[in-house]
């Protein structure tokens, strides 16, 4: 099958999520969803979306742009991540102060646990094996480390003011944190659980961050000045 251009695929998938109440529904049925964040499986076949208005998470087949399943997650889902094998997902709940853990099947979702992480969790990242999650806790100005098998917090690390976006390097060794209010980036060494560097960024209200595949270059979106920095 011919691959769709990325912009067309993203538009088709988000339109499907916004307009379908559940698998097999017709466009326009059900409540508004407001999909605000997404995560794609390593093979590109499945997509998770965090739906802020409906308080749900959707599982989407990217090839058909069809919603396979949707489950309630909690108040104001904000960030979502998917393990490399596509079997485990996590979603942060901005109003709920917790992280929901999901089992992901070929065509179904199930919330199997929750971990309290602190007020206003937003960004989230998973290590490659899906056993550990990192969560940006906006009120306490921390990154929270969570053992997903044990369903418990195993570490808290102070970063800048109001951390939001997170990006983990492909090898799982470095975590980039975008701090919205302090206008900087924290670079965390995952193995030693320390902040290696803090990088000032020109711009206000930093949001999503991303890392190049080699982990040497990072990108951050600046909401206020409508640009991005590298």
List keywords for this structure.
230 residues, mainly beta, 2 domains, four-stranded antiparallel sheet, 1 helix, disordered N terminus
Provide structural commentary.
This protein is mostly beta strands and 230 residues long. It folds into two domains: 1-124, Methylamine Dehydrogenase, Chain H, CATH 2.130.10.10; 163-230, no CATH class. Helices cover 6% and strands 50% of the residues. A hairpin with a 4-residue loop joins strand 11 and strand 12. It is globular, with a radius of gyration of 17 Å. Residues 1-9 and 20-28 have low confidence and may be disordered.
Summarize the helices and strands and which ones pair or pack.
Layout: H1 6-19, E1 35-40, E2 46-51, E3 56-61, E4 66-72, E5 77-82, E6 88-93, E7 98-104, E8 109-116, E9 121-126, E10 132-137, E11 142-147, E12 152-158, E13 163-168, E14 174-179, E15 184-189, E16 194-200, E17 206-211, E18 218-222, E19 227-229
Antiparallel strand pairs: 1-2, 2-3, 3-4, 5-6, 6-7, 7-8, 9-10, 10-11, 11-12, 13-14, 14-15, 15-16, 17-18, 18-19
């Amino acid at each position: 099958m011919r691959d769709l251009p990325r912009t067309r695929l993203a538009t088709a998938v988000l339109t499907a999520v916004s307009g379908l109440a559940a698998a097999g529904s017709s466009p326009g049925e059900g409540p508004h969803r407001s999909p605000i964040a997404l995560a794609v499986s390593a093979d590109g076949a499945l997509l998770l979306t965090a739906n802020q208005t409906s308080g749900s998470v959707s599982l989407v087949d990217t090839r058909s742009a069809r919603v396979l399943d949707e489950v309630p997650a909690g108040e104001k889902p904000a960030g979502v991540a998917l393990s490399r094998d596509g079997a485990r997902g996590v979603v942060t709940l901005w109003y709920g102060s917790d992280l929901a853990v999901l089992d992901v099947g070929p065509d179904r979702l199930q919330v199997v646990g929750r971990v309290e992480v602190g007020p206003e969790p937003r960004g989230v990242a998973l290590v490659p094996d899906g056993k550990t999650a990192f969560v940006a806790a906006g009120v306490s100005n921390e990154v929270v480390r969570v053992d997903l098998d044990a369903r418990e917090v195993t570490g808290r690390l102070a970063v800048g003011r109001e951390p939001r976006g997170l990006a983990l390097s492909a090898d799982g060794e470095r975590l980039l944190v975008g701090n919205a209010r302090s206008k900087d980036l924290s670079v965390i060494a995952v193995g030693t659980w320390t902040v290696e560097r803090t990088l000032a960024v020109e711009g206000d209200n930093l949001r999503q961050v991303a890392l190049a595949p080699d982990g040497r270059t990072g990108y951050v979106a600046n909401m206020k000045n409508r640009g991005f920095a590298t």
